[in-house]
Please model this.
Amino acid sequence: MSLRVELKPFERIVIGESVITNSDTKTAFLIDGDAPILREKDILTAETANTPAKRIYLCVQMMYLENDIPKYQELYFGFVKEILEAVPSFREPIEAASKLILSGSLYKALKELRTLIRREEQLLR
Model:
C-alpha cells in the first residue's frame, strides 16, 4: 500500500538519504517502498535537540534514517539513563519506545517519543 503525502509550499521531506523541498504550490504524491520517510515538522537537528527527551528522539531519528540501530545504541542508553535519573515517571514511555526499537519499528518509536517530548514540555513549564 502506498503512503500518500501532501506537502505545503516549500515544505521539506526526507525520503531515504534525500531531502526533497516542495515548490511554491501544495503537492500530493504517493510513495511506495521501504525507505525511511520523515516530514520536516518531525525532524530534529542537533541544535534543536536541547532537552533530554529531544536528544533521545534525535538518536532514534538517526537510527531510523540511517537504518543502523547498533551505531547509536550506546548513545541511546546513555540518554535514557540520564532522563530516567531526572524523571523516573518517564520509565513507561521509554520502555515502550525501547520495545519498538528492538522490534525494528523505529518510526513507531519516534511517534512514542513525540508524546514523551510533549510531557517533558509540560513539566518544564
The chain has two domains: 3-40, 52-124. The radius of gyration is 15 Å. DSSP finds four helices and five strands in the chain. The mean pLDDT is 95.
